[in-house]
Design brief:
This protein is an alpha/beta fold. It has one domain: Vaccinia Virus protein VP39 (Rossmann fold, 3-Layer(aba) Sandwich), CATH 3.40.50.150. It is 44% helix and 16% strand. It has a seven-stranded mixed sheet, with helices on both faces. Helix 1 packs across helix 3 and helix 6 packs parallel to helix 8. 36% of the residues are buried.
Length: 295
């Protein structure tokens, strides 16, 4: 039996600096780029696209889509997550539907088969056994014919992920009761069993970036027991800012975050039009994996 992981959403600083750092990170991810490419390949527009995010948390990815005109529904079993997501949308005068629902049950009848796109990030790995397949099928049941779903999860075969996890556990910083990472092959097999007629699995980043990002995360963990005086000296030296810029891999130079989001979206479309998108990596060893399936 699965016990849902609880996160302390109330502790998050839901203000524009916090949300906009998350938006910049989202717009730099392969997950988001692949989503934009799929929308464009289908001849669709984000304007009016019906999107449902399952296990929404702060809803940052959906917020980005809403800035581009998507109609968003956010689902979580934790009302605290829904409140936080609503606060984030309210900061930008954007609207969404907020629903409390259990992913191991059937979707509400009025929502089944109504969406162009269903997705989650960091959800399916918190379930075990056949419940993992049920969660994947839950996404599919929201989709229209030929609608598509994407789901992200950590990769069991990733050395940087496993090192980071082990170190977090040894230092008492690992707070999750259950996180069971996927392999490339399990994701694919469960997607087919969940009823998707077309399935693929991709890596979220190359090994070099994984080592860089997880390396800085390890440094941050090791810094926790360091005396505050030494930490302050390092902060004055700009280490914290340098880490942040490397992790985000982008800077907001536009007058507001919506302009930034539109620019990043147009960059992906322009690259597609110029046949310069590159190949999304089928990386068996990437720290994260994402599943793509068509209903």
């Amino acid at each position: 039996m699965n016990k849902f992981e609880k996160f302390d959403y109330e502790s998050l600083p839901i203000d524009k600096p916090f949300i906009e750092r998350r938006i910049v990170s989202t717009c730099g991810s392969l997950f988001w780029k692949f989503f934009v490419e799929q929308v464009h390949k289908r001849g669709l527009s984000l304007q009016g696209l019906r999107i449902v995010e399952v296990g929404c948390g702060t809803g940052t990815s959906s917020l980005v889509a809403a800035m581009l005109g998507a109609e968003v529904t956010l689902i979580d079993i934790d009302n605290a997550a829904l409140r936080v997501a609503k606060e984030a949308f309210t900061l930008y005068n954007l609207k969404a539907e907020y629903l409390n629902a259990d992913v191991l049950k059937e979707p509400a009848r009025e929502l089944a088969g109504k969406f162009d796109y269903a997705f989650s990030g960091g959800l399916v790995e918190h379930f075990e056994g056949e419940d993992r397949t049920k969660v994947m099928a839950f996404h599919r049941k929201f989709l229209k014919e030929n609608g598509f779903a994407m789901m992200g999860a950590p990769n069991q075969l990733s050395a940087p992920y496993q090192v980071m996890r082990l170190l977090s556990q040894l230092l008492g910083e690992w707070t999750l009761e259950r996180e069971i990472p996927f392999t490339f092959w399990e994701f694919l097999a469960r997607g087919k069993k969940a009823g998707f007629k077309e399935c693929a699995v991709f890596g979220t980043a190359g090994l070099a970036r994984d080592i860089l990002v997880y390396g800085f995360a390890v440094i941050a963990l090791l810094m926790k027991p360091v005396p505050s005086g030494i930490k302050n000296k390092l902060k004055k030296g700009g280490l914290r800012a340098k880490i942040k810029n490397i992790e985000l891999n982008a800077e907001i130079t536009e007058s507001n975050i919506v302009d930034f989001v539109k620019k990043r979206y147009n960059t992906v479309i322009q690259a597609m039009n110029n046949n310069k998108t590159g190949k999304t990596p089928k990386d068996y060893l990437s720290s994260g994996l994402f599943f793509y399936g068509v209903n």
